[in-house]
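Predict the 3D structure for this chain.
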Amino acid sequence: MKRNGMSVVALAALLGLSACSNDDMPTNEAVDQLLEAEAEKRTVRLAEDEPTERSEQLLALYEQNERDEAWRQWTTHIAINRAHANARHANVSRETGASGSVASNATNEATSRDDERRTDRNERESEADRTKTAMDAWQQQLLDRLMQQVARPAADTDRLKEDEAAAREKEKEKQQAKQKEEKRERELAREKETLRKQYTDWTLYRDPAERGRTYRHPDVTASLTEQSVYATIGMEEGRPGVHLFLNVQYAPEQWMAIDSMQLRINDRTYVWKPDYVEREAPADERRARVIGWQVGETEREALRTLQDGDDVTLRINGLHHYEDRTLSNDEVKVLRQTFELYEQTEQWSTASKRPLYE
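Done. Predicted structure below.
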């Protein structure tokens, strides 16, 4: 390349840089000094040829252009050389990187496998350590408890024995209570059968509407024309409980109304005032009537004292007169046996809390 008769090679030869490298590139001052020296030489030659003012101006312009062009061409040349050098360096780096990448991948895979094996081994070792730690802790706890028992003071040992004895006693009481309850159930079952057998021979009156049962002693007189005193036992099917009623049978032509009764047993008198009166409606005026009521505490006390052979007198008090009648031994026996069966039934019903008849 040429300009104003000077090429890049000539400029390089002029600057003495034909074999320089990137690091030996001249500075701006060095180039200016060389160009000024060359310009002085040319100025001398031009001055010798034509030393006019116009020639000096042209010479100065020429020299400035020559310096600018020379510097531009030189910097362009250096930039091209650097670009080629960078390209070669990049190619070498890619080749080296490709081979290194393959090796790196292989190395990474091997490292990953080693890491997996190491992790698996560490996990097994950790599990074994945990198992060993748990076993050691359990053994230590067992040993501590044994040592505590060995080192326990005598007072604690005695207290432990007392607690064990109390526990055994409590268990024994529990078993005894269970056996007692089972025995009681068996006894109640036997008593129930015994009671039901006793009622078998008694006269039964049933009320289907209310499922009621009323039992009368079999030796009570069947005649409705005779005067008598007797008791009846009442109960309801399917419900626990039993009731006792007193009944006085009398001749209606003798009494317009009855106010009260007195039962004298030997030398003691009990006054009965029925609070619930039920009269039979006789079809024949000559037939006897019956007054019946549920017994209270006074009647219970009187019936409880009855014994066979007692001298028992019943007084019926009317509005204007009274009548005494001595009870026969059969009447006393019927009253006593009825009251005894009632008490047995009441005790069984209270203990079992069950009905005698379902």
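The mean pLDDT is 76.
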